[in-house]
Amino acid sequence: MTARLAGPRALTRYREALTRARDPGRRVVSVCVGTGCRANGAREVYAALRAQAEKHGVACEEQSRATGCLGFCQCGPLLSVAPEGIVYQHVRVADVPEIVERTLLGGETVERLLYVDPATGRPCRTEEEIPFYHRQQRVLLRDNALLDPTSIDDYIALGGYSALCRAFEMGPVAVLEEVKRSGLRGRGGAGFPTGRKWEACRDAAGDLRYVVCNADEGDPGAFMDDALLEGDPHSVLEGMIIGAFAIGAREGYVYVRQEYPVAVERITRAIDQARDLGLLGESVLGSDLSFDVRVSRGGGAFVCGEASAMMASLEGRRGVPRRRIIHLSERGLWGRPTNLNNVETWANVPQIVLRGADWFRSMGTERSTGTKIFSLVGKVNDTGLVEVPMGATLRDIIFGIGGGIPGGKGFKAVQTGGPSGGCLPAEKLDTPVDFDTLVAEGSMMGSGGMIVMDEDTCMVDVARYFLRFLASESCGNCTSCREGLWRLRDLLGDIAEGRGTRDTIALIEELADTVKATSLCALGTSAVNPVLSTLRHFRDEYLAHVDDKRCPAAVCKALITFSIDPDACNGCTLCAARCPQGAISGEKRQPHTIAPELCIKCGICRDVCPRDAVRVH
Amino acid sequence: MDVRLTIDGHEAKAPKDMSLLDVVRRVGGEIPALCHHEGIAPIAACRLCLVEVRRPGRGEAVLTTSCDYPVSEGLEVVTASPRIRRHRAMNLQLLLPYAPDAPALHEIAESLGVTAPLFAPVTGAPLPGCILCELCVRVCAALGYHALAAIGRGDHKRVGPPFGRSVATACVGCGACHEVCPTGCIAMEDTATTRRIWGRELELFTCRRCGKPFTTVAHRTVMVARGDIPAESCDLCETCRSRDYARRLAPVR
Amino acid sequence: MSADRERGVTARELRRIAAVLARYPQGDAGSLVNALHDVQAEFRYLPEAALCEVADHLGLPRAQVYGVASFYQGFHLEPRGEHTCTVCMGTACHVRGAARLLETIERDAGVGAGGTTPDLKLTVEEVNCVGACAIGPLVIVDGEYHGHMTADRVSRLVAKLLGEGASR
Question: Which of A228, A402, A596, A614 is deepest in the core (most CB within 10 A)?
Answer without folding.
Answer: A228
